[in-house]
Design goal:
The protein is mainly alpha-helical. The protein folds into two domains: 15-76, no CATH class; 81-241, no CATH class. It is built from nine helices and four strands; from the N terminus they run H-E-E-E-E-H-H-H-H-H-H-H-H. The relative contact order is 0.11.
Length: 242
């Protein structure tokens, strides 16, 4: 399985060792005729990136298990540019879930065009609210990290890399749709587990990207949640269903 190799070597530049997070100039060396040798990290004396020969499914499983090595491989040693599309799709999933719950609470089954238009508008409104809440969550994280460790976010590229990591690590929200489609008595519990999983993934993404201990990422997420819930309270005071 060398399907990830073209992505990993798509551009020249510094890579990262997935074990110690030190910079590396190359991931492997090609000796022609199909002979490849994975580079060894000069710092920890381990392979710079063992995942370049792994099947993408195995990498995904390791990412789901929140292994730091898998996160470093994805964030630093591959050229994945789906974070924007993934972010929008996750917001659509969350908006659909809220919209569905809003329809369940409504007893009006009139098929009139005006009613259908109102229901469509409700979906767009849920999407806008979900976007604002997610934005406030991310802003809370960035403010906390910038306040506590300003040296970590000195340049625009540092902000972009962390934003990309946070958006990619929110992939767990895609599980919202199956949880709703296969509705069960335990659906609320499943949704709570999905929320916790996304937060754990966000924490691991911050930790890996900025090379921090476990405490600071969780503090940033905590303040992000405070700001997000502040936005929710604002909408509730406006008497908007969220």
């Amino acid at each position: 399985g060398r399907g990830v190799l073209p992505q990993a070597m798509a551009t020249l530049g510094a890579y990262r060792c997935i074990e110690c997070s030190r910079e590396a100039t190359e991931l492997y060396r090609d000796y022609q005729r199909g002979v490849l040798r994975i580079s060894i990290c000069k710092s920890c004396q381990k392979p710079v990136d063992k995942y370049i020969e792994y099947d993408p499914v195995i990498i995904l499983i390791n990412a789901v298990l929140c292994k730091a090595q898998a996160y470093r491989h994805i964030l630093f040693n591959t050229k994945i540019n789906i974070h924007g599309k993934l972010y929008i799709f996750c917001l659509l999933c969350e908006a659909y879930l809220r919209w569905l719950q809003l329809q369940d609470s409504s007893q009006n089954t009139d098929p009139d065009d005006l009613i259908r238009y109102a229901k469509e508008w409700d979906f767009y409104r849920m999407f806008g609210i979900a976007s604002l809440e997610q934005t406030s969550f991310l802003v809370g994280i960035f403010i906390t990290l910038w306040w506590m460790r300003p040296e970590m976010l000195k340049t625009k590229s540092d902000f972009i890399l962390l934003l990309k990591a946070l958006l990619l690590s929110s992939y767990g929200k895609l599980l919202l749709i199956p949880a709703v489609i296969w509705e069960h008595d335990y659906t609320p519990l499943c949704l709570a587990f999905i929320k916790v999983f996304v937060l754990i993934s966000n924490s691991q993404a911050i930790r890996v990207t900025l090379n921090l201990n476990r405490m600071l990422p969780w503090m940033a997420i905590f303040f992000g949640l405070i700001l997000e819930n502040g936005v929710i309270c604002f909408f509730q005071k406006m008497r908007w269903d969220v």
